[in-house]
Amino acid sequence: MTAGRALAIAAALLAGGLLAATPARPAEELVADLSEHLIAITTGFTGTQVVMFGATEGSGDVVIIVRGPLSDATVRRKGRVAGIWVNRESMGFTNVPSYYAMASSKPVDEIASPATLELHEIGFDHLKLAVDNGEVNATEVPFFRSALIREKQQLGLYARQPGKVAFLGTRLFRANFDFPADVPTGSYLAEVLLLRNGQVASAQTTPLIISKIGVGATIFDFAHQRGAYYGAIAILVALMAGWIAHLAFRRG
Amino acid sequence: MQIYLPIAELSLNVFLLLGIGGAIGFLSGMFGVGGGFLLTPLLIFIGVPPAVAVATQANQVVASSVSGVLAHWSRNNVDFKMGVVLLLGGIVGSTLGVGVFSLLRTAGQVDLVIGLAYVVMLTFIGLTMLAESLLALRRRRRRAPPRKLHQHTWIHGLPFKMRFRKSRLYISALLPLAVGAAVGLLAAIMGTGGAFIMVPAMIYLLGMPTAVVVGTSLFQIIFVAANVTFLQSLQNQTVDVVLALMLTVGGVIGAQFGGRVGARLPAEHLRVLLALLVLAVGARLGYELVTPPAELYSIEVSPPAAVP
Q1: Are residues B308 and A246, on separate chains, in Cβ contact within 8 Å?
Q2: Which of B165, B148, B184, B205 is nearest to B82 (CA)?
Q3: Which residues, in sequence order, are CB contacts of B27 under 8 Å at separation 6+?
Q4: Cβ–Cβ of A246/B70 closer than 8 Å?
Q5: Residues on chain B touching A252 (C-beta within 8 angstroms)
Q6: Which of B28, B60, B219, B233 best tests the A interface by mutation, with the highest count of A CBs <10 A?
Q7: CA-based nearest distance A247→chain B, Å
Q8: Residue contact A43–B3, C-beta within 8 A
């Protein structure tokens, strides 16, 4: 994997060099790609790192946002009832990215206008999380919202710190993104923005697919599509295992 | 070496899972109970979602009970008639239990109910066992004659009397039916085979001789646990066969060693030890319920609407 990544980066550097060497061609302001477009979750999957690399034309700062598929989430808050801590208030959120990581070449507040940050949902403060069926009043929303982000960070699904877009020279850049072992499957989007004077000068979006591959995927799909058969097979496997165990240890 | 658990959706160390299975198997071989009441909290502790831990545990119980019943059957210590009556109650109870489990899951209170059920049951059973085994120890020292097989109470006046030859009992069928239903309900919610509830209930409530209790309880637990496995798979999709298999492999090996150690210790001492263990787990879980949690908030994410 590391060898493949190194190769990919070398290819990017080469591509960058070629672009620089052909001024006749109308220059693209931003070229970027991911080291991998498919993360396969196999039985041995323990998380992975993906590299976003690319080249810019002219000056500017780069912001990269990687977002997982949107889902709904319920945030619950515990309260004390008769001395026991139980879930009490709850708040539903929609449009919650299952994964969110952001990297920039400089702190985003310095390189992007508030409107740009808002529009492109750069940073946790600008995520457009919609409150669904709030049982609690509006003043409570920020608490639940920050709890949601905190819990997601705890799970490794939201990056704790903004990542760093590292420039190699003045034009080539790269940034790393970590995906934990229990990363949700689905189609992700990596958005690369070239910022100049606080505005987006150029943008590019690259898809990233995360899917289960092999035995694990087959088991998961089977369990969810054919619950009855799955249950019956689970029981049969257990019966066989118990019987084999009895036979194996009968003599001992 | 990590292994990806497809239903729990996380990677865990193979040897950790085998070790947990082995340790629980050791205890269950030593004490003659399923050990599920320890396994479910342990699985939750290492990061398996509670719903998956509970459902998978039921699947693992099927395997360990089969191997246990076969061993007891060869010693002719299974009362099949009693087992079937307990089972009829158990099926009703566990079906209800899985339904209740689904409801609690939607309400967001499943973790609380699992925790509370554990604290109440573990404390009750631990205290009962401790008192009983300490009494037995004292009796043995005084060399007093053993107590009567069972006392006659209002329970023996109930209708639908049945004769259970192997258990040497002539009692109302309603009694084992009710015991089976209650244990089945708890088994589904708590994710245990219920042996640790069933065994005391059979000895103290039904008055069965101790020799046939474990084999008979295991016999009916196979079916109750199989029913829970099936219904959890159908309604909640929370049974992880890979996890269950890992635990089973560790469990059957541990059970053999536990059985050998257990055979060398006197029965009353074993019961005192088990009672103390049960109380310790209960106290630990109870402590968690009453101390302010480090994080007041928790999240539950529903699956993304459209996945290609």
Answers
A1: no
A2: B165
A3: B33, B35, B38, B254, B258, B277
A4: yes
A5: 256
A6: B233
A7: 8
A8: yes
DSSP state of A126: G
- Calculate how close chain B gets to A125, using CA atoms only, in Å: 19
* The token pair that represents A241 in the structure block: 């295992």
Query: Of the candidates A46, A144, A187, which has its C-beta nearest B308's C-beta?
Result: A187
Residue corresponding to tokens 């750069």: A122
Tell me: the pLDDT tens digits for B247-298?
A: 988 888 887 788 777 777 777 777 788 888 888 888 888 888 888 877 788 8
Which chain A residues have a beta carbon less than 8 Å from that of B249? 241
CB pairs under 8 A between A and B: 208
Say whether A245 and B67 touch across the interface (CB within 8 A). yes
Structure tokens at A65: 């946002």
Q: Is A189 exposed, middle or buried (0-12, 13-18, 19+ CB in 10 A)?
A: middle
ipTM over 0.90: no
Following CA atoms B92, B94, B98, B103 in sequence, which dihedral angle do they give, to the nearest 10 degrees? Answer: 70
**Residues in Cβ contact with A159 at an 8 Å cutoff, skipping those fewer than 6 apart:** A100, A101, A102, A153, A177, A178
- Alpha-carbon distance B29 to B41, whole Å? 19
Residue range A127-159, pLDDT digits in tens:
888 887 656 677 888 888 889 999 899 888 998
Contact between A138 and A81 under an 8 Å Cβ cutoff? The reply is: no
**Half-sphere exposure of residue A6, counting CA atoms within 13 Å on the CB side?**
3
pTM of the model: 0.70
Verify whether the Cβ–Cβ distance B226 to A238 is below 8 Å.
yes
CB B78 within 8 A of CB B212: yes
CA distances to A90, A178, B47, B136, B202 from A145, rounded to whole Å, are 11, 23, 24, 58, 51
| Alpha carbon distance B271, B262 (integer Å) | 11
What's the gap between Cα A181 and its chain centre?
12
Short-list B17, B15, B14, B24, CA closest to B255: B24
Nearest to A252 among B70, B249, B256 (CB): B256
Please indicate whether, in this complex, the C-beta atoms of B229 and A216 are within 8 angstroms of each other. Answer: no
Contact yes or no for A245 and B63 at CB 8 A: yes
